Amino acid sequence: MNASAMTPPTTDEPAATRRPFRARGGLAFLGLAGMLTLAACGEGNDATTADPTGGQGAATAASSPDPLASATVRNAEGTEVGTAQFTEADQDAMRVSVEFSGLEPGYYGLHVHGNGVCEAESSAPDDPSETGAFLSAGGHLGGDDARHPDHAGDLPALLVMESGRAAMSFETDRLTAENLRDDNGSALMIHSGPDNYANIPERYAPEGPDEDTRSTGDAGSRLACGVIE
């Protein structure tokens, strides 16, 4: 009998044809796993991009204290030129934040005055015969026991840009909730000129600054006023 006829038939494929199939299956599985990993990484990146601060920005905004007081500042015609906010800061300080617009470029004296009344044409509280713009606000806050620039209400000069805008934020330990809101109240004042802080060189004034300079810093007339409340 023919030997080949006695060999039983088989349905198994030769090993040489099975190995390539298993290799292709492994590569396909690895490719799918890689795609899923990349997709997961992409989702993670999207989450990070959506909040790059890790939530710290929201927490900071939520923890910002509310202002203790604020003021809307208007000129003698009644036009609003800006606002101010007074907020408690660290180490017994007060943060003052101001924003103004519609002003001529340059430096302006900025002070807190000791009477919370802003009347365009008015008399000075201590001298009714003296009249003028916003004289109702009185002198600088803390003026009874101090001389310029050591009043509690003496603030940094305001710099107005070419656009007519000005903004600044600073801290001072001279202002408190108590002196801003005492029985007389208080007002924020923009003057028409820069404040010299009583810094008059001796060659110009051998005897030192005069009383007007020591009271006002020679900052000029009162340009705009806002009651602090």
From TrEMBL:
The reaction(s) this protein catalyses: 2 superoxide + 2 H(+) = H2O2 + O2
InterPro entries per the UniProt record, alphabetical: SOD-like_Cu/Zn_dom_sf (IPR036423), SOD_Cu/Zn_/chaperone (IPR024134), SOD_Cu/Zn_BS (IPR018152), SOD_Cu_Zn_dom (IPR001424)
Cofactor: Cu cation; Zn(2+)
Coiled coil: none
Top enzyme category: oxidoreductase
Ranges annotated as biased composition (Polar residues): 1-10
An annotated Gene Ontology molecular function: superoxide dismutase activity
Role this protein plays: Destroys radicals which are normally produced within the cells and which are toxic to biological systems. May play a role in favoring mycobacterial survival in phagocytes.
Protein name: Superoxide dismutase [Cu-Zn]
Biological source species: Kocuria marina subsp. indica
Taxonomic lineage: Bacteria, Bacillati, Actinomycetota, Actinomycetes, Micrococcales
